[in-house]
Amino acid sequence: MTELRGLPVSGGSRVGYALLFEEVPDVRAPAGGVSPDDVPGELARLDAAIEEALAQLEGLQASMEGQAGLVSGIFEAHAAMLNDAAPRLRAAVQEGNAAEHAVAVVLHTIRERLEALSNPVFKQRAQDIVDIERRLLRALGSLSHETPDLTAAPLGPVVVVASTLTPSEVAAFEGREIAAMVLEYGGPTSHSVLIAKSLGIPCVVGVMGVTRAVHPGDRIWVDGSEGLVVIAPDADTLERARGLGERYDRLEAALLRESGLPAETLDGYRASLLANVEFRPDVEAGVARGAEGVGLYRTEFLVDERGRLPTEEEQVATFRWTLEHLRGGALTIRTYDFGSDKPEVPDRRFEPNAALGERSLRWCFAHPEPFRAQLRALLRVAAEGDVRIMLPMVGGLEELRQARRALAEASAELAREGVAHRPDPPLGVMVEIPAAAMIADLLAREADFLSIGTNDLIQYGLAVDRLNPAVAHWFRPSHPALLRMIRTILDAAAVHRTPVTMCGEMGGQSIYTVLLFGMGVRAFSLTPGYLPRARRLLRSLTAREARSLAAECLRQTTADDVEALLKARVQPVGRG
Question: Residues of 248-286 as b/e, b for ≥16 C-beta within 10 angstroms?
């Protein structure tokens, strides 16, 4: 029996038999040109391959339309990337290269450029280029590889194990008996993983060495909620795995049935549960799990796969769709938050430390035209419902005031054009750097609301890069310094009666949900999957118990002491 760990990205506990995908090696057609007389024929072959590939992508887009807007949009983005690359492909053939060689060289260059970026999201997009390259090479007849026949594993449910998978390969799983998926590489925002999640397939990524440890047909237990992969589990582990899977399914069904219930403690104190969203499926998942609205809409993910910023009209359409699906719920939209762990825009200059560079609101001020277009879109949609605007990475009142001036200018411009809009939607700030926490009283006096961004507040407060595995163990939500910063923010907001929302992964972890509620947090914006457990947990305790526990935690002197106290006193929901 072998246990491996990875990053949990799609929940569920499943047992199945390994189907090992062997990674297709890079196809590099042999160097050597074609004669000038052969160039027209090679161009015709290339154009036919491009046309065939685009038709296939259109078919995939249509077949996945019922899953989620994002999933079908992945293949729409593939088509856009292929159309973008087509002129370079044709130029390479016109220079005397065979069509296969042009495809391999041009797309491999694009892929290498993506892989060289520091941003993990764009590194993951390199796999989309691999998908397009293979599709073109198959259309040219130089690559015979197809997704393995899943019926070739006759033993039962299949656990797909691979180094990486392209989005097309994962899309082929639809309608098949796939128990789970395990990848050595990839991340939570890779397109392959997003498709797996939309298909309801438990998934763990970043499981290094799994393709060497697994043999075809091995029985595997995958716990997609905990990031656990067990190869050849013994009888006791197998029984535990199956029992956990059954409990997980029963719990998920029960929690979903409770989605219409309020997040209210036994002694009558209520909390608002909101959703953090990036894509349309997140909105749908949040509504299905009883979200009262969206507490954080991450607009930087509206940038397309080519790095193109959305137009004003495209943003209006997206925000309007979200507002309509919330059925009257509040929609809090964060302005562009480009940074060290977010998708990058074209022509972004190199920064030695992007986390401390021109990111978030600083980027917006340095690029007034896209910021203006976004503010115009927000003001227009705000006329149609409860829309609130949130500013990221605010460090002082100067930034809040400058953003207000930009908002007023956008409103005046719309008024001159006779465009319907709301001139004064609520404008709030994210408190996610220590400077903002230290002047929370000043910000609370001028902002319409505050949102505590725990991910960055921990990162900047404790000087820990949350994406660096070498120091991940120093990233401690239980650190007394962080708890004191949160208490400072909440106290300042209470004085000025400024609403506060807790936004970040910390609020979704059971032990911290209770702690934060006890400290006075009454609105949580969480990943949709966290919402049902947070609701169940809050309904199982009293506010008095939570306040007592929070007071005791604030008296502790180390992160270890806080964690030990919370784990001893808080009973998680399921494996929450």
Answer: beebbeebeeeeeeebebeeebebbbbbbbbbbbbbbbb
Residue 133 exposed, middle or buried by CB count within 10 Å (0-12, 13-18, 19+): buried
pLDDT one-digit tens code per residue, 500-516 = 999 977 887 888 999 99
Burial (0-12, 13-18, 19+ Cβ within 10 Å), 51: exposed
- Say which DSSP state 33 is in: B
Give the residue from 194, 225, 278 showing the smallest Cα distance to 510.
225
Q: Do the beta carbons of residue 397 and residue 442 sit within 8 Å?
A: yes
Q: Which helix (H) or strand (E) holds 481?
A: helix 480-496
- In the CATH hierarchy, which top-level class contains the domain 2-23+146-250? alpha beta
What single letter denotes the amino acid at residue 446?
A: E
Give the number of other Cβ atoms within 10 Å of residue 84's Cβ: 13
- Give 503-561 as a 3 state SS string: ECHHHHCHHHHHHHHHHCCCEEEECHHHHHHHHHHHCCCCHHHHHHHHHHHHCCCCHHH
Residues assigned a catalytic role: 191, 503
Work out the average pLDDT over 285-311: 85
Q: Which two tokens stand for residue 501?
A: 């929302």
- In CATH terms, 36-139 corresponds, of 1.10.274.10, 3.40.50.300, 3.10.450.50, 3.30.70.360, to 1.10.274.10
Q: Is 101 exposed, middle or buried (0-12, 13-18, 19+ CB in 10 A)?
A: buried
Q: Within a 10 A sphere around the Cβ of 473, how many other Cβ atoms? A: 8
Compute and round to an integer the Cα radius of gyration of the chain: 25
Q: Does the structure show a pLDDT above 70 at 66? A: no
Sorted by where each begins, the domain ranges of the chain are 2-23+146-250, 36-139, 258-569
Going by pLDDT thresholds of 50, 70 and 90, the confidence category of residue 143 is: low
pLDDT digits (tens, 9 = 90+) for 183-208: 987 766 566 777 777 677 889 988 88
Q: Give the tens place of pLDDT for each residue, 220-278.
A: 999 987 889 999 999 999 899 988 888 888 888 888 889 899 999 999 999 999 999 88
Within 8 A by CB and 6+ apart from 353, the residues are 340
SS (H, E, C) 163-195: CCCCHHHHHCCCCCCEEEEEECCCCCCCHHHHH
Residues in the chain, how many? 576
Identify the three-state secondary structure at position 439.
Answer: coil
| DSSP code, position 200 | T
